[in-house]
Amino acid sequence: MLSFEDKIALIQENFPELDMHEVSLGRLNFHYEESVQDKKIVVYHLHPNGNGFVYGGHLPQSVKNEKGYVNIRDYEAEELIALIKESMEYLSKKHGWQQPKKDRTNDDDRKEEHWYSHSHEEIRLVGEDGMWFIFDEDDALEAAFETYAEAEGYLKEADFKKKK
């Protein structure tokens, strides 16, 4: 697990566009002022004990809390960098929340594939709302990608094969 200091250094080195703000109890927030959304806080309540949250508006509701944040306490450096990058990319784009949701009766917009490893571990690749999500056997989110090609590349690199 990364320490509080490690997380601060990682954020400041990789995301100079985030502004650090001190909040109560020694916690820090990192704001993204260039966000085109109402939401500006990307990293929320980063605590000296290593706990903290990153905004996950781009992720399914099942992996974030009621405020839309993902707990990053046990994240490794690469995971944290990827999550913050995805969050900032999401906040940089306009999203048509005012538009009525599409009729999902035929569920054409949702795609699902099953992939497996040599050790017979099975995971799901789910395409929904323009994003691709990888879920492990326990249905926990492992990764999220903007394109199918990125998700497929990730799975192939991890030596997974598509189930036919």
Folded structure, characterized:
With 164 residues, the protein is α+β, with helices and mostly antiparallel strands. The chain contains three helices and ten strands. It has helices at 4-14, 77-91, 148-157, and strands at residues 18-22, 28-32, 41-46, 53-55, 69-71, 111-116, 122-128, 131-135, 141-145, 161-162. It is globular, with a radius of gyration of 17 Å. The chain starts with a helix and ends with a strand.
Average pLDDT for all residues: 84
- The secondary-structure class comes to alpha+beta
Proportion of β residues? 25-35%
Tally of separate helices: 3
Write the SSE topology.
Layout: H1 4-14, E1 18-22, E2 28-32, E3 41-46, E4 53-55, E5 69-71, H2 77-91, E6 111-116, E7 122-128, E8 131-135, E9 141-145, H3 148-157, E10 161-162
Helix pairs in contact: 1-2
